[in-house]
Specification:
2 copies of one chain form a homodimer. The first copy, chain A, is mostly helical and about 160 residues long. Helices cover about 60% and strands about 10% of the residues of chain A. The first copy, chain A, has a 3-stranded antiparallel beta sheet with strand order 1-3-2. In chain A, helix 3 (about 60-65) crosses helix 4 (about 70-85) and helix 5 crosses helix 6. Chain A is globular and about 50 Å long. At the A-B interface, helix 1, helix 5 and helix 6 of A face helix 1, helix 5 and helix 6 of B.
Chain lengths: ~160, ~160
Amino acid sequence: MSSTRAEPGLPFMGAMLRMVGHAMQQRLTTWIEASGYKDIQPAHSAVIQPLWQRPEGLRLTELAKVSRITKQSMSALVSELESAGYVTRAPDANDARAMRIRLTARGRRYGTEVRAFAQQTESEWAEHIGAQRVEQVREALHILLTKVLAEQGEQ
Amino acid sequence: MSSTRAEPGLPFMGAMLRMVGHAMQQRLTTWIEASGYKDIQPAHSAVIQPLWQRPEGLRLTELAKVSRITKQSMSALVSELESAGYVTRAPDANDARAMRIRLTARGRRYGTEVRAFAQQTESEWAEHIGAQRVEQVREALHILLTKVLAEQGEQ
DNA sequence: TCTTTTAGTTCGTAAGACTGACCAATATAG
DNA sequence: CTATATTGGTCAGTCTTACGAACTAAAAGA
C-alpha cells in the first residue's frame, strides 16, 4: 500500500501548484510585454480565453463562474479590456439586466497569439516530462476543477 | 501522433494551474480561520514548510530561493511570523551578515497541523482522481519546478 | 401584485508580490 | 593587503489581483 504522501522532502501538491502557477504567470507577463501588448495583464486571460470562438459572447456572470472569480472582479477586468478595445459590452437582447461580452477583432488577434504561446509552452513541457504526462496532468487538473473544487464558491 | 493540445474547450494547463492553486489557497484560508490561527495567512506556508524538521534553520535567502519569491517578500513574511512567535531570527554564527530562521515550538505545532491538513486534502483528491494520478501529477510538477522553471528567477 | 431572486455596478480594502535603492559583511583579484 | 565585487538583508514605495458590502434595476414566482 503506497501512501499518497510522497517521500519526505517533496513539497505537497498544493504548494507546488501555487509555485508552478506563479512561475507561469511571470512567464506570461514577460511574453505579454515582449509582444507589445501594453494594456494587457495576465489576469485578463480569465476574460479572453472563455470567449474564444464564441461569437455570441458570454454574460458577465457566466464569465465569472467559469473563471472562478467574483462578478465584481470580472466586471473590473472586462471594463479594462473594453476601454482598451479587446472586448465589447452590449446589452443582452433577451434580458435587460444582462450584458453580453464579445471579443473584438483586436481581442481575437490577441487571443490567437496568446493561445499560440500557451501551446508552445505546453510543447516545451512535453519535451521535459513527456507528452503523456502533460496529458495526465491536464486531465487530473480538469477533474479536480470540475468535480472536487466545484462546490467551493457555489454560494 | 496525438498532439499535446487537448480537445478544444479544455483550458490550457497554465489557466487550470492558476485556478486550482487559487482554489487551494481559499481552502487553506478557510481551514486556517477555522483552526483559530488568527495571525497566519496562506503565504506563510512559504516559510513554515521549508523549515519543517530543520532544527538548524535556514537563511533568509535560502528560504526565498526554495519558495521562489524575492528576499524582500520573504523578509516580510518572516517578520510577521516572528512577531507572532512562530519563528525566530537569529544571527548566523558563521556569517555576520546572515540570519538563521528557525521554527519555535509554536511554529512546529502549526506545522504539524497544517501538514496534516495538506495530507488529508491530497487523500481526498486521491479518492477522486486515483492515488496513482496524484503521484503522477506530483512528479510532473516537481520536474517542472526543478528542471523547466528553474532558470526563471535566477538573477 | 408583492416579494424574492438574478445581473451588474460602485466603493473600499486586503493579500501577496515586485522593483529600486541602500548598508554591511565577506570574498576575490591585483 | 588593499580595492573591488559579491552576497545577505533591510527599507520604502508600488502594482496586480482579488474580495466583501451595499446598492440599483430587471425578471421570476407565489
